[in-house]
């Protein structure tokens, strides 16, 4: 139980620090979908931090909605970047385009992909936590 909680908290910390470093250190301006992903990730640092401190193994009830919606948003955002046909339906009409790619490591790793992996890991760990009860 404790390893699952601590592991999910570490994932949120790394994802949040990565997000902040992209915008604050590398000066990447977040698009609309990036902001939605931040809105879903950043509170998890506090929520899971408190859960680790209190050893609350029932926190999955509150974390899963954030992580599952985060998976959906980041998955759509990644698809928007990688599937040209979806760009015709792009909802980011002002500011930074959501289909833009600041990074493209190995031809497939973009910022929304990293967010999708983080949200997926958190979801997986929360499902494990739920099953351990």
Automatic annotation (TrEMBL):
One of its GO terms (molecular function) is protein-disulfide reductase activity. One of its GO terms (cellular component) is plasma membrane. The lineage of its organism: Bacteria, Bacillati, Bacillota, Bacilli, Bacillales. HAMAP family: BdbC. The chain crosses the membrane at residues 7-29, 35-53, 60-79, 105-129. Disulfide bonds join 31-34, 92-98. This is Probable disulfide formation protein. The keyword Oxidoreductase applies. It holds the Pfam family DsbB. Keywords: Cell membrane, Chaperone, Disulfide bond, Electron transport, Membrane, Oxidoreductase, Redox-active center, Transmembrane, Transmembrane helix, Transport.
């Amino acid at each position: 139980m404790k390893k699952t909680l601590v592991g999910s908290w570490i994932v949120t910390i790394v994802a949040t620090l990565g997000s902040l470093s992209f915008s604050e250190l590398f000066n990447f301006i977040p698009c609309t979908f990036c902001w939605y992903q931040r809105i879903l990730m950043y509170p998890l640092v506090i929520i899971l931090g408190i859960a680790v401190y209190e050893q609350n193994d029932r926190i999955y009830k509150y974390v899963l909605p954030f992580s599952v919606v985060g998976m959906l948003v980041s998955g759509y955002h990644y698809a928007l970047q990688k599937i040209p046909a979806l760009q015709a339906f792009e909802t980011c009409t002002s500011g930074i385009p959501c289909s833009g790619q600041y990074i493209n490591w190995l031809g497939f790793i973009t910022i929304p992909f990293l967010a999708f992996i983080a949200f997926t890991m958190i979801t997986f760990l929360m499902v494990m936590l739920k099953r351990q009860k």
